[in-house]
Write a sequence for this structure.
């Protein structure tokens, strides 16, 4: 199999603390881009932290060891050099130096109207600017601190968001917006900030 030229990246979906001969714990997810093999150095990025480790083994189905896995594959990854507490859902595992965390971003978003099951008021309404932003398997609380265009009357909102803690996000990444357990919109990151 020819190696995918894009750098490896996989969101962490679940972490299992199950000691075994391949390591002390493993995590599972679907590879978003690139290719990974046992022995590859990786970084776990998210929640304001970056940890380094090495892929000890890859499994497809339980007990099926893989020599390589590529984008689109669902795999379990056993790591060396980290503890189970160092990895959690919402982080990403990636090729070293290829993913950065940011505490803010600008985005274009579609905010659902009340008729679509969304908000009864606009984003500009006083006191209604905090929401949960979902990127891949992570969610972070954010505050819309600058509204460049409100999105009223079906227009797309242009906004600047400040997150309560840094998250691994990039330009072009899609996200969902939820408030009080209800989906109120979705968007795409147009610029990362700090």
């Amino acid at each position: 199999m020819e190696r995918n030229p894009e750098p490896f990246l996989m969101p962490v979906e679940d972490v299992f603390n199950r000691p075994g001969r391949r390591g002390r714990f493993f995590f599972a997810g679907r590879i978003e881009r690139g290719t990974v093999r046992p022995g590859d150095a990786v970084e776990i990025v998210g929640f304001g932290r970056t940890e380094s480790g090495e892929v000890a083994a890859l499994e497809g189905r339980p007990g099926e060891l893989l020599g390589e896995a590529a984008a689109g594959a669902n795999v379990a990854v056993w790591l060396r050099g980290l503890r189970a507490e160092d990895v959690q859902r919402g982080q990403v595992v990636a090729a070293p130096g290829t993913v950065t965390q940011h505490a803010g971003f600008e985005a274009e978003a579609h905010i659902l109207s009340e008729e679509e099951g969304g908000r009864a008021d606009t984003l500009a309404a006083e006191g209604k600017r905090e929401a949960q932003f979902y990127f891949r398997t992570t969610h972070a609380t954010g505050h819309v601190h600058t509204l460049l265009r409100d999105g009223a009357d079906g227009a797309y909102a242009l906004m600047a968001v400040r997150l309560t803690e840094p998250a691994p996000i990039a330009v072009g990444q899609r996200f969902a917006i939820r408030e009080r357990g209800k989906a109120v919109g979705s968007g795409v990151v147009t610029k990362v900030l700090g």
User: Anything to note?
Assistant: The chain has two domains: 9-94, 101-193.
